[in-house]
Specification:
- The protein is of the alpha/beta class and 377 residues long.
- It has 2 domains: 204 residues, Rossmann fold (3-Layer(aba) Sandwich); 160 residues, Glycogen Phosphorylase B (Rossmann fold, 3-Layer(aba) Sandwich), CATH 3.40.50.2000.
- It is built from 13 helices and 13 strands.
- The strands form 2 sheets. A 7-stranded parallel beta sheet has the order 3-2-1-4-5-6-7, with helices on both faces. Strands 10-9-8-11-12-13 form a 6-stranded parallel beta sheet.
- About 3% of the residues have low confidence.
- This is Teichuronic acid biosynthesis glycosyltransferase TuaH.
- Pfam families: Glyco_trans_1_4 (PF13692).
């Protein structure tokens, strides 16, 4: 039997949102001990309300015991979560030098406390590279789930320089989309598309009380950010006043075009485990993306979650949706959404076919591929 591996993972804040890294790492064998290090930031904070709230969350995490989580993804006992003290300023060489010393000291202590030895170094965020070479790691893995060169809210130049260091040092690169995979050396790159919590989204769920009671519903969940085509949604809401447009998630872009529309509903954030109750009762689940570099390189988790729920889906065209295009109502970016809603509403007969399309794409299957790749290291 192959000996278990220890991992130190530099990822986003555990529990803040259910990322692909969290889904994968949570499903590794229970005897693989994991030291999880929360994010040290991809840009210098600014004096905005959002950043001040984020800073407050970080401070609270430091003040609590290390193994905290927000309940979005269950944290198995073999995963030990730690909130590092570091300076979130990728563009500053002085900050990176300080972070290297701070992280090395903190991580060595956590590895000792958690009982880990010669871990595999796993970075899902390029900023983790500052600790590389200080922890006695046996191998280096870079998990790339986003195009950091175009990701909103990132100090692009310094972060991309950090990514290049990781690519050069990595023994294994895992890319979540084919477009991302083509950027890296093919001899050490594994293309691994996102999975889905199939049982969660396919199991019938009760209709939430805060959904509109009458009329068809077009719904979206996730960050309402720059990559969402707000104008497309506004035009559709005006063209289809009998439809309700439900948006679930934090608002991170200008939505003034949507404000005041009587059939537009902002519900705010909802826990991940509550989302099936919403999407299963949408008459059309939306992927209304703008045509951006970030979207062209992305592989959104919600696409497979929509499919697992069996919901009719309206999506703008982008590369990661193409394998499922025959199951979606596809429109070109910047085109009219309203006619596609009518088409999707009439497509409920294929709900079971949509579910079956991702039945074997669960996170357990993806984690098995990760386990095998790590064992080969």
């Amino acid at each position: 039997m192959t000996a278990p591996h220890d991992l130190i993972v530099f990822g986003e804040d555990w529990g803040r949102h259910p990322s692909s890294t969290q889904h994968l790492i949570a499903r590794l064998p229970q005897d693989w001990q994991v030291c999880w290090v929360n994010s040290i930031g991809l840009r210098r904070p600014r004096l905005s309300l959002r950043d001040l709230k984020r800073l407050a969350t970080k401070v609270m995490a430091l003040m609590r015991s290390s193994n905290h989580d927000g309940g979005q993804v269950p944290r198995p006992d073999h995963i030990h979560v730690h909130a590092p003290m570091a300076v979130p300023w990728p563009a500053s060489q002085a900050a990176q030098s300080l972070n290297r010393r701070l992280l090395a000291r903190q991580c060595r202590r956590w590895l000792h406390e958690d009982g880990l030895h010669r871990p595999i170094f796993w970075a899902s965020l390029p900023t983790g590279v500052v600790a590389l070479g200080t922890l006695g790691e046996r191998a280096v893995v870079y998990y790339c789930g986003d195009d950091f060169s175009s990701l909103a809210g990132v100090d692009h130049a310094p972060v991309m320089a950090m990514e290049q260091q990781l690519v050069d040092r990595a023994d294994l690169i895992i890319a979540a989309s084919e477009h991302l995979a083509r950027r890296f050396p093919q001899n050490k790159t594994l293309y691994l598309p996102h999975g889905v919590d199939f049982e969660l989204f396919a199991t019938p769920a009760a209709r939430p009380d805060d959904l509109p009671e009458s009329g068809p519903i077009a719904g979206f969940y996730g960050s309402i950010a720059d990559w969402v085509d707000v104008s497309m949604l506004a035009d559709a809401a005006k063209e289809r006043p009998n439809w309700h447009f439900v948006l679930i998630g934090s608002v991170e872009t200008d939505v003034s075009e949507l404000e005041g529309l009587p059939n537009l509903h902002f519900l705010g954030k909802r826990p991940h485990h509550d989302l099936p109750g919403y999407v299963q009762h949408f008459h059309a689940s939306l992927l209304p993306f703008r045509d951006t570099d970030q979207i062209r390189h992305c592989n959104p988790l919600k696409l497979r979650e929509y499919l697992a729920a069996g919901s009719p889906i309206v999506s703008t065209r982008f590369p990661a949706m193409e394998p499922y295009a025959h199951l979606l109502t596809v429109i070109e970016p910047c085109s009219r959404l309203a006619p596609a809603l009518d088409t999707a509403r009439a497509d409920s007969a294929r709900n079971a076919i949509r579910r079956d399309a991702v039945r074997n794409e669960g996170w357990d299957n993806r984690a098995d591929e990760i386990r095998a790749a790590l064992e080969r290291l």
